[in-house]
Amino acid sequence: MSTQLEYQVEPAFSHLSSSDWDALKPRLEAARSETLADVELLTSGAAIPPAKQPLDSGFIMLPANLLAEQEKSGAASLLGEMKATAEKRSAVDRFVVLGIGALTWVCGPCLKHSATHITMSSSRAARGDIPRLYFGGNNIDNDDTAGLLEVLKSASNYADLANRWGMTVISKSGGTLETAVAFRLFRDVLEECYGASSKEVTELVVPITGETGKLRDLSNATGYPAIFPIPDGVGGRFSVFTAVGLFPAAVMGIDIDALLQGAADMTERFRTAPIGENPVLDYTGICHLLEEKKGLSTRILSTWGSRLEAFGLWYDQLLAESIGKEEKGALPVTVVNTRDLHSRGQQHQEGVRDKLITNVIVKESSTSPVAVPKVAADRDQDQLNRLNGKAMPELLDAAIKGTNKAYAEVNRPTADLVFPKLDAYTIGQALQLFMLATVVEGRLIGINPYGQPGVEAYKQNMGEILYGK
Ligand code: PA5
Fold it and tell me: Which of 306, 303, 299, 300 is CA-nearest to residue 108?
């Protein structure tokens, strides 16, 4: 079976004229060339022209570069150091990830076990020897924060592995208030749990931050033994292949080499494959043309099964924050089906004709099929014996086919992004596909996809309210 991600353009493609598609091809080629030229520009040391600032094209070659460095320097490479630090997960059974950019844990679907399995399973062995994962510092919610702090500090014996916890704090700028406030609160509780002068208060904290900033200063002053960088030239939402995504993934036992290899292979496909066989260019082209020619300015990422929700939320952030500028940019909306067929399906079938639906379909589940049991005829009041013992994957497949047929019958365009299965290699491909497609679209419509100047306005107002002018 192929391990490649495939983007299937039909039936959305049939909503476009071939002349429109042909006219787009040279523009797509130009956007690809510009995207790749930006990699050279960033590394050349030449001055970045004002129109190109900020330029965060560092994410494009990062996966291949990290793997090459590991090949050369082994344990002394950045990946080697991250893996060694991640091994310290054996010292904790709860791992807290603080950060805004890291709030949707996009690597989650690569795990062998589902989120439910990890959260509910009290046995560490049954969880695959990985700690439970918690998120914080991505919002300002008193009850949620108080609840998590309470869980962490309620034990009496912190020598017992089941009660031991550690954390990573992630902020490139080091100035994000939500994360900074949480970090101060969680540091306090860490001292309460282990003792203010214990080795745990530094050893069980891993800051991940830019080369300069408040978090970098605080981390250096405190003397945390491991501090991982978020390099210049890689922006927050594009930083999944820095320690931001890789370190939590390694703590959870994910094969980060496979994740990076998937991303590196997608970059290579993007660089070399012609339009028509290039998932990045084909996806960008279909989305762009359907918006421009048919007014489909809402992009529904229709994920099937429940494991890709966080991935979809990250993509919402990526597209919205990158392209939503200068009064342009499609609206990304992630849905999780079949759940959301019961909430949004009506609108997708009969609402305003402004939506392109991209299905995200996983061919093979990670666990053995769960079949619907047959029961004696006198207990078949729910009439499910008609399913004849079919398993969940067959039910989901019927839902996907039935929904797409219903959309096709009323001329609602759909396309499919097909994962052979969910693992580190396919998730790596998908993350890079979407990051590259977002940048190519920005270049296509003359929007700088990097940076998020509009977000500053609320931050400044909030600062004035809190600290005064
Ligand atoms: O994409 C971006 O740059 C933003 O969404 C940031 O990730 C987010 O604002 C968090 O910033 P920081 O990592 O500096 O705390």
Answer: 306
Q: Whose CA is nearest to atom 4 of ligand 1?
A: 236
What is the predicted pLDDT for the residue at 112? 66
236 Cβ closer than 6 Å to some ligand 1 atom = yes
Per the DSSP assignment, residues forming a β-bridge with 357 are 300, 414
The per-residue pLDDT for 126 is 83
176 lines ligand 1 (CB under 6 A): yes
Output the six-digit token pair for 300.
């529904």
List of the chain residues with pLDDT < 50: none
Whether 321 is catalytic is yes
Contact, 162 vs 92, CB < 8 A? Answer: no
Q: For residue 323, give Cα distances in angstroms to 101, 292, 294, 320, 329.
A: 17, 14, 19, 6, 5
Task: Using the atom order of ligand 1, give the atom closest to the CA of residue 451.
Answer: 3
How much is the pLDDT for 446? Answer: 97
413: preceding bond cis by omega (within 30 degrees): no
Whole-prediction pTM: 0.96
Confidence (pLDDT) at 219: 98
Give the pLDDT confidence score for residue 103 in this predicted structure. Answer: 52
71 has catalytic annotation: no
CA of 365 to the centre of ligand 1 (A): 33
Quote the ligand 1 centre to 188 CA distance (angstroms).
Answer: 24
Instruction: Quote the pLDDT of residue 101.
Output: 65
136 Cα–ligand 1 center, Å: 15
Catalytic residue (choose from 178, 200, 309, 321): 321
Distance 322 CA to ligand 1 centre (A): 12
CA–CA gap between residue 357 and residue 343 (Å, rounded): 15
Q: What is the pLDDT of residues 28-66, one digit of tens each?
A: 999 999 999 999 999 999 999 999 999 999 999 999 999
Beta strands 165-171 and 205-209, pairing class:
parallel
Give residue-wise pLDDT tens across range 60-82. Answer: 999 999 999 999 999 999 999 99
From 173, 181, 215, 323, mutation site for ligand 1 pocket: most ligand atoms within 8 A of C-beta:
173
Question: How confident is the model at residue 113, as a pLDDT?
Answer: 66
Beta carbon of 245 within 6 Å of any ligand 1 atom = no
Answer yes or no: 117 catalytic.
no
